Amino acid sequence: MTWILFALVGTIAQFIDGSLGMGFGLTSSTLLVTLGASAAVASAAVHFAEIGTTLASGASHWHAENIDKKILLRLAIPGGIGAFLGATFLSFIDLSSSKIFISTLLLFLGFLLLYRNVFKTEGQVNMIEIKNPRFLSYLGFTGGFVDASGGGGWGPIVTPTLISTTATEPRKVIGTVSAAEFVVAVAASVGFLAQIGRIDINWAIVGGLALGGTIAAPFAAKLVGILPAKQLGIVVAVAIIILNATAIIRA
């Protein structure tokens, strides 16, 4: 019955992740750590499961035309490199003590994103294309490293940053970030496999999370294309604020 429970968790987590561009890793990792798993084991299990869920989510967003191909390539490659290094690092060192810093940073981004959408003005400038063409590479690498080393964080770091600093539609940001996460998941999994002697993976958890997430992916991708851009941005911001405020309070 264990895998059925995690299949349900995977379904809920992927519905959140696919529709808001974040949440699968944070939701799943939080549950695993609560049940007693170490940070390395939780992150490894989640990323193995995400190989299936992100592939399904990316394909669904591609079919729904929610992906910007140029941004996808510039995010995915450095994201994969960062994820591999993050997984390798976490296999030796538990970074749980650094999560309060990350949560504080994300909480700030959440309020920034909320402000932008509540007081949204027309003619916003795409800062990435004008100011720093390497910004996406830096963002992808950072998001990938934090995601693998912290058991989650790709969506919460990359999604609000792109929405806050570019004029790209929220649905395309979410779709692109979700698709790029497939590369991040694969790279992180390879990193954990290289250190398999140091961690003990529960494959029932991996299978359950992957099954539930894969089933939910197509429905979540359709939802993101229906929601209005401004309202969607506000929902994403509120989700970030709640998730990270809760993490800070618990810490």
List its salient traits.
globular; single chain; mainly alpha
Describe the structure.
The chain is mostly helical. It is built from eleven helices and no strands. α3 packs parallel to α10 (203-226).
How large a portion of the residues is in β-strands, by DSSP E?
under 5%
Cα Rg: 17 Å
Characterize the largest beta sheet: strand count, sense, and whether it forms a barrel. Answer: none
Q: Percent helix among the residues?
A: over 70%
Task: Please trace the helix and strand order, writing H or E for each element.
Answer: HHHHHHHHHHH
Mean pLDDT, rounded to whole units?
80
**Helical region count?**
11
Q: What structural class results from the helix and strand content?
A: mainly alpha
N/C terminus separation = 31 Å
Give the count of structural domains.
Answer: 1
Give start-end ranges of low-pLDDT stretches: none
CA-based shape: globular
Number of strands: 0
InterPro entries: TM_pro_TauE-like, TSUP/Inactive_protease-like
Membrane topology: Multi-pass membrane protein
Keywords: Membrane, Transmembrane, Transmembrane helix
Main location: membrane
